[in-house]
Amino acid sequence: MLVSTPAPTSAPVRVGIVVTDSYPAEDLDHDTAPVVAGLRARGIDAEVTVWHDDTVDWSAYTLLVLRSPWDYPERYDEFLTWLTHVEQVTHVLNPPALVRWNLDKRYLAQLADLGVGVVPTTYRTSVDDVRADLAAFAADAHVVLKPTVSAGSRDTGLFRADDPRALDLAARIVGSGGVVMVQPEIPELSAGREKSLYLVDGEPSHAIAKGALLAPGGGLIGGVYQEHPEPVASTDDEDRFARGVLAAVQQATGLGMPLYARIDLVDSAAHGLVLLEAELFEPALNLHVAPAAVTDLVVSAIERRTR
């Protein structure tokens, strides 16, 4: 008598959406809930996971999707250690190798070398070098200083080149072991004309304008980091530019196409279309102001990566 053996069943797909456990009231995570709901509607076991929760068994997940671990700058070494651990036990998107590369904004120099238009920038590790950079500007010119590792415009300031507060900020960044970026002001950026273009699996999905953030003389408009995202259309030139940025990212890193990316750009009179930041790690997708189909697009992209 022949006895049939049941076919082995594959392990259920389990997706962890990686967040943190607190957000300032002016900078909330609007993306995680609809993504989790969308995945569950497709029969995928999806749940929210706090990256620094020591009780989580990360190996139990088929896939971890980095969504909003926005407190990482205050816990930078801890976050890098966490990345090293989780990549050894499960699949992580966007991949930790890309995240590490993207965490330090000196990647902009690599992309510039590959032909991407960027804001002219120097990277300085001493206050004396920053002082020399500032002296090269006209006294009434405006400049932006910021650290190469930051999020939410932390330690970022817009100053007149002769404002002593610019050097105070440089000293604070250098004193904490950071690298100072020195850039000329882009008037179109200060006027709120920055656009953020989102790409899912390399294809443009939606775009927003979020308004100006930096107050002249240092600090943020209104005293807090608060975006005001408004849906906008992107032009064909902007879409081509964004795709070109991701092509250069792949060339620079040797890695594949990111699950999702946010390309911040501005069309400037002085420099043409320039890249401000390529956020390949934990961009706010602003699904609450995006067309309804965008959430489905993101969920579909995650589902494909579980197969």
Describe this structure in words.
A hairpin with a 2-residue loop joins strand 9 (195-200) and strand 10 (203-209). The protein has nine helices and 13 strands. The strands form three sheets. A five-stranded antiparallel sheet has the order 11-10-9-12-13. It has a four-stranded parallel sheet with strand order 2-1-3-4, with helices on both faces. The longest helix has 18 residues, at 236-253. Helices cover 31% and strands 23% of the residues. By secondary structure, the chain is an alpha+beta fold.
SSE blueprint and pairings:
Elements: E1 14-19, H1 32-41, E2 45-50, E3 63-68, H2 76-89, E4 91-93, H3 96-103, H4 107-113, E5 122-124, H5 127-135, E6 142-147, E7 157-160, H6 164-175, E8 180-184, H7 187-190, E9 195-200, E10 203-209, E11 230-231, H8 236-253, E12 260-268, E13 272-279, H9 292-305
Parallel strand pairs: 1-2, 1-3, 3-4
Antiparallel strand pairs: 5-8, 6-7, 6-8, 9-10, 9-12, 10-11, 12-13
Helix pairs in contact: 1-9
